[in-house]
Model the fold of this input.
Amino acid sequence: MKKVVMYAILAGMLAVAGCSSQSPGTVSSGEAGTQGGNSEPKVMKLAVATAPDRSLTKGLVKFGEILEQESGGAIKVEVYPDGQLGGDRAVFDALKVGTIQGSTMSSGPIAVDAQRFSVLDLPFLFKDEQTAYEILDGPIGQELLGDLPEVGVIGINYWENGFRDLTNNKREVKTVEDIQGLKVRTLENELHLDLWKELGAIPTPMAFTELFTALEQGVVDGQENPAGNVTSSKFYEVQKYYAKTGHIYNASPFLISKKFWDSLTAEEQAMVTKAAEEAKDYQRQLNQEETAEALEYLRNNGMVVTEFSAEEKQRFVEKVQPVYQKYAAQLGEDLVNQLIEANK
Done:
């Protein structure tokens, strides 16, 4: 009897072992496999420097919701806001090697690797958002996205961070002369440095993730960002004056790691593109609403918001013409002239 029981137990153990050998294997991010009829989802980590309540972050969340639904859960999206995985430059480098699968960021940091993207940061280039959309969604914008694969990144489309304005804690900026001597945090980008030098400031490049502390401690006098960033990052707590310079329109390309993109099937790539297009429209609309609300919020929280006359704004434009001359020579006069003509 005992032998019968032992044989029964042994048979049961062998059966369990046989079933275990058919269970799905673990799969690394971006490499879905199937064993025994089951598959692991492809994991897509999206990193962004902006706060959770900022339109760019919400756009990534929306993208994830759409893509997970479109793929039936075959692609899982994780969003890491607030610079949790690093500043823009660190994230861009991670996209190139595939340790982060997606992001959206201003064109300035991208231009360190893809120089022609600097053309989008030429000061006072875009007259309004609608003109920017038409240009970026058209041949010029698509041509620039074509520069990215060779550095290991795929550019899907353009979201927006909005028009950049100047804040500081020293004095109200009413004229070009009032900028003289202000120590201003800028993006880590040569064109931005040249722009602020021409305006008389002392530009100080640093990662966005370090900015609040630098303002609080007086390492820099001011910074320049769209209104939504000033609000969501609580810069109004350490800055008194807001000048609506609108000196640069910040396109924010939606980027995918080429290593991850190449791991997707053609059908999955189509799903990513579709989700990105829907998220783009959502994010742009949200950003415009956010900007209007942000300016009112900043006024209500004690910031002095200054607007400029058309005449004074023209003085700003004239002051930065050396930047156009320098970068037209570097980036191609034809490209710069096409952008100027498209904005007329």
Observations:
- The longest helix spans residues 266-300.
